[in-house]
């Protein structure tokens, strides 16, 4: 079993990575401090794993909330279901919520935990590759707004994260690829050695070799934990984790939440960020080529949707959380494994890159 | 002008108390760090004070959200209006929200600030006595749920609190009295000298003597600031600020939000807490009498609504945030100015006190 600690002082917590740990209650039951537990899952995952999770919780008083699956349901209105269930079951401040699902379930469950009675504890059990390597770690929680992704939320850290690699066995290929976009991200922004390792192992990873996947999830979590420990509330460096995300959020919002998976939009956004980094003269073109090749090998899109136009992109990007006092801040690369947060790219140069990528004028 | 500081380390902030400070931008504009400002108010207060507030903000980029007035609108659904406006106006993470209103506006604006883009800054400009002495100070924010009051929220501290006593000139008598319930609370729970001062000055206070009101607001804020500085997130002692509130929340929820004002429900709840404290043998009956006399002098109810019954009370109280692992914890008095958090009162003894107060069997 692999194990690491996210170091945030009093809010520190462990991340456990191994096949089968969902069934190993002895390992993680101690992170549930009260008697009440509320499992939040969705209608795809619950039929697969809810029963075995509940088996481990036989000694607790358990209620459950099964949300509709998909990014389009990540809204304040759907969030209310969690509060309804918690109150109907008389759950108090000592309750623990458990997120059993992908990024959407984790973000919503975490946000509900942040807000219920002004904050209760929660545990992340990610069931997708994307959630294991990215969204379940670091305490970002929230819901979407029709005008922008993740616009309503909180920083709220879990008690622990359990990445059970066996849960990936039921993950559809498209979702698996989407998770790989975030895996590749870590190589690009802060871990050149890992990027090289990914180039060497991508075909085995796409074949879902458990040993290699375990290593990949661990490396991603170590990288994320380091960045988050330095800058929990994204005052500065944590923003590099958003490589491709400002472009990507614009795609998700424009195309309708869930039509492009988050990881797919991040992949296309990463391709744009690579192109922009080259256009700025900051990144050697061959690093861009290697990045694109790895995304393609992971069956990910590297071009934005052709039905979008430049103005739409710029308007949606202008609403992103990385905007500060009118300045659009983007994550760009200055080398393999080296990212910067920059507002130096002008609207003109961003437009040129979008046009070159096939976006309408 | 009176001025105190709530000491919370990096989250410390000043509270300014004086007639006319709303017009003294030189004093408080420095607490707005960015260019964007969003004023949140309601349809009663906005016609009275929005224009003069905006005059002070002439150099800022200002948008506004006018909510419907009243506790019944303190919901997640109404909260969405704030997010809609912020996103439509492209407000980013450096925006500052300003709550211009009573407790409902302050709680909702503060919660919106806690959640918008995972947290932006905000300022409290309370316009009711209750908000000046209690809800605007200490960072509790949130909305109600049909099944329980303030069940969804966050701890989020403002940048500063501006208590402009001139704003009380337009406050209806019933709301003024409601605020006095929280004023009396501070005397009962932690400041016997202040309680005696209130006994001596209540009739002049009810006549809205500005000098005396200023002193009362200051004393309340000093007491609240001390309690909150010791226990920001209510792990322990902060709970004493909820004297009468567990009973009171049950009344508010049962009667429909807004039919009993929060302060009225707290007054009736305080009367029940006093009676229970006496029944436990912890409080001399003459302190109960002095407490009731002061509530009556402030034109406040001291009996619960007769249409409620004991079971309804107990069920609603069982859902309160002060419940921990099934134990109902109540704030009781052991003397004038001395409160404890206790789960020693049995359901039987609470029922007896409710029945004696006229609640149905």
UniProtKB/TrEMBL annotation, chains A, B:
Catalytic activity: 7-phospho-2-dehydro-3-deoxy-D-arabino-heptonate = 3-dehydroquinate + phosphate
Domain 3-dehydroquinate synthase C-terminal intervals: 179-323
A cellular component annotation (GO) from this entry: cytoplasm
Binding-site residues, NAD(+): 69-74, 103-107, 127-128, 140, 149
Single GO biological process annotation from the record: amino acid biosynthetic process
Domain 3-dehydroquinate synthase N-terminal: 65-177
Alphabetized InterPro entries for the sequence: Dehydroquinate_synthase, DHQ_synth_AroB, DHQ_synth_fam, DHQS/DOIS_N, DHQS_C
UniProt keyword Amino-acid biosynthesis present: yes
GO molecular function: 3-dehydroquinate synthase activity; metal ion binding; nucleotide binding
Top-rank taxon, per record: Bacteria
SUPFAM superfamilies recorded: Dehydroquinate synthase-like (SSF56796)
Cofactor binding, note field: Binds 1 divalent metal cation per subunit. Can use either Co(2+) or Zn(2+).
Pfam families documented for this protein: DHQ_synthase (PF01761), DHQS_C (PF24621)
UniProt pathway: Metabolic intermediate biosynthesis; chorismate biosynthesis; chorismate from D-erythrose 4-phosphate and phosphoenolpyruvate: step 2/7
Required cofactor(s): Co(2+); Zn(2+); NAD(+)
Family: Belongs to the sugar phosphate cyclases superfamily. Dehydroquinate synthase family.
NCBIfam families (alphabetical): aroB
Function: Catalyzes the conversion of 3-deoxy-D-arabino-heptulosonate 7-phosphate (DAHP) to dehydroquinate (DHQ).
PANTHER family registered for this protein in UniProt: 3-DEHYDROQUINATE SYNTHASE, 3-DEHYDROQUINATE SYNTHASE, CHLOROPLASTIC
Name by which UniProt lists this protein: 3-dehydroquinate synthase
Organism: Zhongshania antarctica
Native organism taxonomy: Bacteria, Pseudomonadati, Pseudomonadota, Gammaproteobacteria, Cellvibrionales
């Amino acid at each position: 079993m692999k194990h690491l600690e996210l170091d945030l002082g009093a809010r520190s917590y462990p991340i456990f990575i191994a096949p089968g740990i969902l069934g190993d209650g002895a390992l993680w039951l101690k992170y549930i401090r009260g008697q009440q537990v509320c499992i939040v899952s969705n209608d795809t995952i619950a039929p697969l794993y809810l029963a075995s999770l509940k088996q481990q919780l036989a000694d607790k008083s358990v209620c459950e909330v099964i949300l509709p699956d998909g990014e389009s349901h990540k809204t304040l209105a759907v969030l209310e279901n969690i509060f309804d269930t918690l109150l109907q079951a008389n759950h108090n401040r000592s309750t623990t919520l458990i997120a059993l699902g992908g990024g959407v379930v984790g973000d919503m469950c975490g946000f509900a935990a942040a807000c219920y009675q002004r904050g209760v504890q929660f545990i992340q059990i990610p069931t997708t590759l994307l959630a294991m390597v990215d969204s379940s770690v670091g305490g970002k929680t929230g819901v979407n707004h029709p005008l922008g992704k993740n616009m309503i939320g909180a920083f709220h850290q879990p008690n622990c994260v359990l990445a059970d690699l066996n849960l990936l066995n039921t993950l559809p290929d498209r979702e698996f690829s989407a998770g790989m976009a975030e895996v590749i991200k870590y190589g690009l922004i802060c871990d050149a050695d890992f990027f090289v390792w990914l180039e060497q192992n991508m075909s085995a990873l796409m074949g879902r070799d458990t040993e290699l996947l375990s290593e990949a999830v661990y490396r991603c979590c170590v990288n994320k934990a380091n960045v988050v420990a330095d800058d929990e509330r994204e005052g500065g460096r944590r923003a590099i984790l958003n490589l491709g995300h400002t472009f990507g959020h614009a795609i998700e919002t424009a195309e309708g939440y869930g039509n492009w998976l988050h990881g797919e939009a991040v992949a296309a956004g990463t391709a744009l960020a690579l192109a922009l980094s080259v256009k700025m003269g900051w990144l050697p073109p061959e690093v861009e080529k290697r990045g694109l090749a790895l995304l393609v090998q992971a069956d990910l899109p590297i071009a934005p949707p052709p039905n979008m136009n430049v103005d739409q992109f710029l308007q949606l990007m202008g609403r992103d959380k990385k905007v500060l006092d009118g300045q659009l801040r983007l994550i760009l690369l200055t080398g393999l494994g080296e990212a910067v947060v920059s507002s130096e790219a002008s609207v003109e140069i961003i437009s040129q890159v979008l046009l070159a990528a096939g976006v309408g004028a």
